């Protein structure tokens, strides 16, 4: 009688350990294999944040978002996270998309002033009207991947 | 001959003006790095943000930073989740900002290669709580790029970051913040 109870407790403990281990080591979201929660143009997502930052955070942040927009430039100044910049709102608003370093070659092959299609995790809007040197704003996406 | 001399002088003057203008003005980057590090005997926790927006005015000494909290990437997804949802409430408080001054900014010759030490003091805002901070930084000018580096320590409780007792042993009471940014002249 004691043996089955002991085995049951052991199984429960093992199950709990495995659950905790898997939760602790769960991987980051794999953007490439995750279906986008929303597909939106660069200017539309910029407008959504500009109009109501708090509401846009609730709607878009932490989600994989597919975006298309005019590629203004590639910002490769930080080798740890090469980035591209899409037009969000003329010269005042941008969509800044960060990639893993292994995407560098693909980013180099992109042509400026063409439409870029990508998806990434939305982090929010950076920049602030209260900081006069940083008044231009970027909607930021991370862990981006290009969509063919 | 006279025409050539005037043209040469004009070119030199224009060149000097261009050089002088780069000695002042606004220097900026959208790809600054901020790392934070917590050490306890149980666990080390580190996270990086590589898309920090920052600028300084080489004439007035004004310096500003804006960093998205959600953009700090942790080695483990679960840590990142807990950081954003439980401690930083980053959907409600999405940004951390700093606004301050570089002391004796005139000593930093942004038009000449060199290494300069200076103190930066100002107001750091995290979770809508603003505190005065002051830190010594190193400005390294190389070929028109100004690299700024500094390390300072903050106490999470100063910014209403509450650490539950169940994990208090895993998170240090003093968090080391390291800033490393390459600024370029903003045209």
What fraction strand of chain A?
A: 25-35%
Judged by helices, strands and strand pairing, the structural class of chain A is alpha/beta
CATH architecture descriptor of chain A: Beta Barrel
The number of distinct structural domains of chain A comes to: 1
> Counting H and I runs of at least 4 residues, what is the number of helices of chain A?
4
Description:
The complex is a heterodimer of chains A (148) and B (187). Chain A has four helices and six strands. Chain A has 148 residues and is of the alpha/beta class. Chain A has a single domain, classed as Nucleic acid-binding proteins (OB fold (Dihydrolipoamide Acetyltransferase, E2P)). A five-stranded mixed barrel of chain A has the order 2-3-4-6-5. The longest helix of chain A has 23 residues, at 2-24. Chain B has helices at 2-23, 77-88, and strands at 26-39, 44-57, 62-68, 95-102, 114-126, 129-142, 145-154, 175-185. Mean pLDDT of chain B is 89; it is low at 12-22. In chain B, 29% of the residues are buried. The A-B interface holds A 23-29, 53-54, 57-58, 61-62, 75, 77-78, 80-81, 83, 96, 98, 123-128, 130-134, 138, 140, 142 and B 26, 28-33, 48, 50-51, 53-57, 62, 64-68, 70-71, 73, 76-78, 80, 84, 90-92, 94-95, 97, 99, 182, 184.
């Amino acid at each position: 009688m004691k043996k089955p109870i002991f085995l049951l407790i052991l199984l429960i403990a093992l199950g709990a350990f495995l659950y905790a281990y898997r939760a602790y080591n769960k991987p980051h979201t794999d953007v490439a294999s995750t279906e986008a929660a929303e597909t939106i143009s660069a200017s539309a997502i910029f407008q959504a944040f500009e109009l109501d930052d708090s509401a846009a955070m609730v709607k878009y942040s932490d989600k994989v978002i597919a975006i298309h927009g005019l590629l203004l430039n590639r910002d490769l100044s930080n080798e740890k996270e090469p980035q591209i910049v899409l037009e969000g709102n003329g010269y005042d608003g941008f969509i800044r998309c960060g990639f893993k370093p292994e995407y560098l070659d693909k980013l180099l092959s992109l042509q400026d002033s063409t439409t870029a299609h990508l998806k990434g995790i939305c982090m929010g809007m950076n920049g602030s009207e209260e900081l006069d040197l940083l008044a231009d704003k970027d909607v930021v996406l991370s862990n981006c991947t290009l969509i063919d | 001959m006279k025409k050539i001399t005037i043209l040469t002088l004009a070119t030199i003057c224009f060149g000097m003006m261009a050089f002088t203008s780069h000695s002042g003005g606004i220097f900026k980057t959208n790809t600054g790095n901020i790392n934070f590090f917590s050490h306890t005997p149980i666990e080390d926790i580190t996270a990086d943000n590589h898309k920090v927006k920052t600028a300084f005015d080489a004439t007035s000494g004004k310096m500003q930073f804006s960093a998205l909290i959600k953009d700090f990437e942790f080695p483990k997804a679960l840590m990142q989740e807990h950081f954003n949802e439980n401690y930083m409430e980053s959907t409600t408080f999405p940004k951390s900002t700093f606004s301050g001054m570089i002391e004796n900014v005139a000593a930093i010759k942004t038009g000449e290669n060199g290494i300069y030490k200076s103190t930066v003091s100002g107001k750091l805002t995290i979770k809508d709580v603003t505190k005065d901070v002051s830190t010594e930084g190193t400005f390294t000018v190389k070929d028109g790029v100004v690299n700024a580096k500094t390390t300072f320590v903050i106490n999470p409780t100063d910014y209403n970051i509450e650490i539950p007792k169940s994990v208090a042993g895993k998170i240090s009471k003093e968090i080391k913040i390291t800033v490393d940014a390459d600024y370029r002249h903003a045209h």
